[in-house]
Amino acid sequence: MTSTSDDDTSGLDWAKLRGMGALAEKMGIEWVEFTVERCVATMPVEGNTQPVGLLHGGAYVVLGESLGSMAANLHAGAGRLAVGIDINATHTRSATSGVVTGVCTPIHLGRSLTVHEIAVSDEQGRRCSTIRITNMIKDAPAA
Tell me: the pLDDT tens digits for 33-77? Predict the structure, then answer.
């Protein structure tokens, strides 16, 4: 699926109009690129650290889930809703300053399930975390 709705709204415009949710906004996540094939967002390390100054592992997961769930909803299309049913993360490096960038790519885009991988890297391009999320696609509830 490449369109976001019945109009010509771009994926990035669609994501910005939809919003990312209160938690992602509090964490400072910002969309950079948004298509079915690739979504990119950044998040500051400052304000999202654990007591010893490292980016909190849960912050990586919030970035990953924000990207993967929104990408699945873009794929699902109008009248359908994607909801997360599984997520896992492997943290391989610690970010301590600057911003991290999450790049979300699909592994599987089906009619009822999607699977996305999110690679989160620091400003030097070193991978810090790899997140995989599975979303179930269902009909959206009636308004």
Answer: 999 999 999 999 999 999 999 999 999 999 999 999 999 999 999
Distance CA 117, CA 100 (A): 16
DSSP 94: -
- What pTM, to 2 d.p., does this model score? 0.90
E strand intervals along the chain:
30-34, 39-44, 80-91, 99-109, 113-121, 127-139
| Residues recognised as catalytic | 65
Q: What residue has token string 């415009």?
A: 13
Are the C-beta atoms of residues 106 and 71 closer than 8 Å to each other?
yes
The residue with tokens 């709204």 is 9
Q: Measured between alpha carbons, how far is 123 from 83 in angstroms, rounded to an integer?
A: 30
Question: Do residues 83 and 138 lie in contact, with contact meaning Cβ atoms separated by under 8 Å?
Answer: yes
Nearest to 5 by CA among 105, 106, 67, 73: 73
Cβ partners under 8 Å of residue 125, min gap 6: none
